[in-house]
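Notes on consecutive records. When two proteins share a document, each keeps its own sequence and its own token line. Never mix them. Below: protein one.
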Amino acid sequence: MATAKKRTPNAAFMKPLKPNAQLAAVIGDTPVPRTEIVKKLWDYIKANNLQDAKNKRNINADAKLRPLFGKDQITMFELAGLIGKNVEK
């Protein structure tokens, strides 16, 4: 019986990234790792009830998210791509 090898986290995911102005308006301007950015965005989306009622995979934009999204609604799969475009490397 082989013992499971513990996975080490990828250092690239743990590197703090500085959000630009649009992203900072939602999550704050402190540099945080990509994983934390995703978590904070979902916290904001859920706290403001922005998931589409009919299709939970869609996220509706409010005044803070519209400049970030560039449109009224995105899918949860587009969220990761938006993060890359809205952080300073």
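Protein two starts on the next line and is unrelated to protein one.
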Amino acid sequence: MEVLAFGVQADERPLIEEAFRGHHEVRCLDVFLTEDTAPIAAGHQAISTSVNADLDARVLRILAAGGTRLIAQRSTGFNNIDLTVAEELGLTVARVSYYSPYAVAEFAWTLAMAVNRRIVRACNRTRDFDFRLDGLLGRDMRGRIAGVLGTGKIGESFTRIAHGFGMNLLGWDVAQNPACLELGMRYTDKDELLAEADLVSLHVPLLPATRHLIDAAALKAMKDDAVLVNSSRGGLIDTTALVTELRAGRFTGVGLDVYEAEAGLFFLDKSLEGIDDDTLARLVTFPNVVVTSHQAYYTVDAVRQIVATTVRNVTDWAGGRRNENVLVPRTG
């Protein structure tokens, strides 16, 4: 059976081909799955998609009509998939439930320190042989408060690094993580966390209940000199409201690896044609903002785990077996 893999990055391709070798044939495409590209999948029972694939009702119907029966997404998040329609069409949808939490947590800290210590601005200056320190003043993290929204595996890893910096720890989640409690984390409500934290990092999934978790009111509740980091999902932050606060001169720094309208932008080269997203265009002009293109997961270790799980999902489906990664059909 040949698996058609959409949205494969150049660095990923050899890892995907290596993992599938001896199990299934795989054809890697650098194009992303959209309504326009979905017809390419005709004749393939199994496809694999990236996190920025567009799997709405129209795309799913095209896939089903072309003979696709399995969608194996190479990510943990699945907010881009209409699971209800997938189930109606008899499609099986699987994801990657787990991969290296360290990749994302370490990158979140990379963003936090980059904006705190003005690394991008400093690098740009030294390229022009400007070695002044004006505007590069940062802050020690030791003794300050880290607020972690979402303390699952990634949030826990982020918390361990914060503990290593000697920070005080505040957490918010539907359930308390014993490992975080052992590190000295105090769980509180979201309002108190936002009001007290010097650094706020988001590690929750994007669900209807968490969309715009950080809205205009939440942003106003934060300290004027706080650092905000989002390496989870772009829809957790109301970006228009964030731009408003940044224009008012608030926040020491904002590090974003995700953006709520990133589909059709991230993972693509728009340098020659530009973009028509005025919000993103304004966002990247702020000197205290660093935006990266959804790369927090992008380490050799994490990608290998993601691809290995994807191969297992395909193999189990082909063998008539259901594993813990299957989202559709639902059970219970």
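For the record: The first strand starts at residue 2 and ends at 5.
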